[in-house]
Specification:
A hairpin with a 2-residue loop joins strand 2 and strand 3. The protein has eight helices and 15 strands. The chain is of the alpha+beta class and 329 residues long.
């Protein structure tokens, strides 16, 4: 599910970004601004690590994207005949398996088979949409969105419906961050942040202090809901309704689509997930945004791998038990 997530802002003490012990660099990757912040490593070593991490993240984007002219296995799968098994590269197989696990656990609030519906809305097109698709077109696309239309026979994958199209926009960015962090570690970096347009993974500390991660307010461009102190290795991802959207007749149409209706989800303004891996947090933040706190809180409480927070459609804040212990205002 394509989406640009709510910006999660790195909260530092005064002049943190200019502190001599920090190396901070920005790149454009995966259609968004990716910020690398490294602490406690000399600039030449940090620069080499950032270059390698950025190259790895670009490789992941090329392997998973459904846009552009570059060929990859995901595009080949989407154009393969229905019920024709094909092998997928190991990492695509693994992320598809994770995606389907989240789909099953969330009753398809998140589904990797949403590609046809995402293309119909066109939020990732060079020219953004200004009106919704017709109800007839949405109805025609919906049968392929269900994750059950993506199946596995032995070690091969197949699609069961012509409208079933893979789209990893709701999880591949998180996976790219996970790979970027792995590369930083390979280069001797132990304290760092990668922030890709609101998908974030944090390792280590900033010296003797924890990293402080601020959560952006979905209706206040320069405002924040609060912040989370982070020590060690955590991923924080926020999905929100304000990065890609248009207004029509007073209604907000955004890019996070409800697979059950084919329309933009309307139960949340934002949903934030904390997990160990960015790929896990990425997929679940989409699912929980679609479900909203009324339907998603029980899932978050039952899942030991995640903690969650929502701002609902009325602007009220809802926190899972574990998130209440983390969140600061």
């Amino acid at each position: 599910m394509l989406r640009i997530l709510l910006t999660i802002v790195l909260l530092a003490l005064v002049a943190c970004s200019n502190a001599p012990e920090d190396v901070h660099e920005t790149r454009i990757l995966m259609g968004t601004v990716v910020e690398f912040t490294i602490h406690g490593v000399a600039r030449p070593q940090a620069q080499t690590a950032i270059d390698a991490a950025a190259a790895e993240m670009q490789r992941v984007e090329d392997a998973f994207t459904t846009h552009g002219r570059r060929r990859n296995a995901v595009k080949a799968f989407n154009t393969a005949p229905v019920n024709s098994p094909m092998s997928l590269p190991k990492e695509v197989d693994q992320i598809l398996t994770l995606s389907l696990a989240i789909a099953r656990a969330s009753n398809d609030a998140f589904t990797p088979a949403i590609g046809g519906l995402s293309r119909l809305w066109g939020f990732s097109n060079p020219k953004p949409p200004a009106s919704p698709p017709s109800p007839a077109d949405i109805k025609q696309t919906l049968p392929g969105v269900n994750s059950s239309q993506i199946d596995k026979e032995g070690k091969q994958w197949l699609r069961r419906h012509e409208q079933a199209q893979l789209d990893f926009g709701g999880i591949a960015k998180g996976y790219a961050i996970d790979r970027g962090i792995a590369v930083l570690r390979e280069h001797g970096v132990n304290d760092a942040i990668i922030n890709a347009g609101g998908d974030m993974r944090v390792i280590g500390r900033r010296g003797k202090r924890p990293w402080k991660i601020g959560i952006r307010h979905p209706r206040e461009a320069d405002g924040m809901i609060g912040w989370i102190p982070v020590n060690g290795d955590k991923s924080i991802v926020t999905s929100g309704d304000y990065e890609r959207y248009f207004m029509l007749n007073g209604r907000r149409y955004h890019h996070i689509l409800n697979p059950a209706t084919g329309m933009p989800a309307d139960q949340s303004m934002s949903a934030t997930v904390v997990a160990s891996r960015a790929s896990m947090a990425d997929g679940w933040s989409t699912a929980l945004f679609v479900l909203g706190p009324n339907n998603g809180m029980a899932l978050a409480e039952e899942n030991e791998d995640i903690e969650a927070m929502w701002m609902d459609g009325d602007g009220n804040l809802h926190l899972s038990d574990g998130m209440q212990g983390m969140f600061r205002r």
